[in-house]
């Protein structure tokens, strides 16, 4: 049977880039992008889906004979704190709808993104292991912990092949993040190229795990392509890219843009970040399906500044 892919949340930071990559891999005619609003940058098949409506998901699944679903829609850590109950409702309802529609329609594989936000004060902050204590401080983090457990439940109870990664902050030039605590690490490059002072909402020394977009996309595809028997963790896999603080990324930018200016105005996002890991132990992902990141901070800085300079020219 041929693979036909549905992406839910395709207008988002990761979704818009992942959709293009999946179109290259499976063919434009076999990838259906969807989001709650009309297509922004997507060319190809597109359906408006409000994923809190299971009937609408099922309609699209049936219409296109979908075999795999990538469910990316969620309200992220910082934005989620403005309305915790709504965030909970949206993040959990959309996931449960996807899992249930998948079970009832014999979907072969489901991808569910988790996050470093599952960790909280009880986990070691250096080399945080896959099986560390999960005591998140944000409603987004709580929804991801529960989402991971639901993913595992559907695998164990119904044999639904749900696979998941705990993403760090993702850095790419193609799209903008929205509502996360790691968003500063994308915004800083835009401000540098535009010659504007960057006001950072974290402290200068707050180190967080991050990853370049190409690595994040490759991790997703490698996980989804791995043979079934290699997937040993059915909650979610830690993956590591690169870890740095605002001071360190600013220093890299300054090497290339000596006039770059940064000021520090930490807000509530600093409280979120200081409960998250600084570095991640991704040895399970390496061992089980061969994960290894390629981009370091210097590579990311070069690529981001070059791409954005060309974009704003
Ligand atoms: C966020 O900052 O909320 C996200 C994430 C780490 O999941 N980028």
TrEMBL record:
Source superkingdom: Bacteria
Domain NAD-dependent epimerase/dehydratase, chain residue ranges per copy: 5-240
InterPro entries for this protein: Epimerase_deHydtase, NAD(P)-bd_dom_sf, NAD(P)_epim/dehydratase
Short name of any one Pfam family annotated for the protein: Epimerase
Protein family: Belongs to the NAD(P)-dependent epimerase/dehydratase family.
Entry protein name: NAD-dependent epimerase/dehydratase family protein
Provenance organism: Postechiella marina
């Amino acid at each position: 049977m041929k693979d036909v892919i549905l992406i839910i949340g395709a207008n988002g930071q990761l979704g818009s880039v992942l959709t293009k990559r999946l179109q290259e891999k499976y063919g434009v005619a076999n990838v259906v992008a969807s989001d709650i609003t009309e297509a922004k940058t997507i060319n190809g098949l597109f359906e408006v889906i409000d994923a809190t409506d299971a009937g609408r998901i099922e309609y699209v699944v049936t219409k296109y004979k979908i075999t795999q679903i990538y469910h990316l829609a969620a309200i992220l850590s910082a934005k989620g704190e403005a309305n915790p109950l709504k965030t909970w409702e949206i993040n959990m309802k959309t996931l449960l709808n996807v899992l249930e529609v998948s079970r009832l329609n014999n979907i072969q594989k489901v991808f569910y993104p988790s996050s470093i936000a599952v960790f909280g004060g009880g986990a070691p902050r250096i080399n945080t292991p896959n099986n560390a204590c999960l005591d998140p401080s944000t409603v987004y983090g709580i929804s991801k912990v529960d989402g991971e457990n639901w993913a595992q439940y559907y695998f164990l109870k119904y044999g639904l092949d749900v696979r998941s990664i705990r993403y760090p902050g993702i850095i790419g030039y193609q799209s903008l993040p929205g509502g996360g605590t790691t968003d500063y690490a994308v915004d800083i490059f835009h401000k540098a190229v535009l010659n504007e002072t960057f006001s950072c909402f974290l402290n200068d020394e707050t180190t967080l795990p991050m990853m370049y977009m190409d690595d994040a996309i490759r991790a997703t595809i490698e996980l989804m392509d791995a043979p079934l028997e290699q997937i040993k963790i059915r909650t979610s896999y830690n993956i590591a890219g690169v870890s740095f603080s605002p001071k360190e990324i600013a220093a890299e930018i300054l090497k290339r843009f000596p006039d770059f200016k940064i000021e520090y105005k930490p807000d509530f996002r600093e409280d979120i970040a200081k409960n998250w890991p600084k570095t991640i132990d991704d040895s399970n992902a390496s061992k089980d399906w061969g994960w290894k990141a390629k981009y370091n901070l210097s590579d990311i800085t070069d690529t981001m500044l070059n791409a954005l300079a060309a974009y704003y020219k």
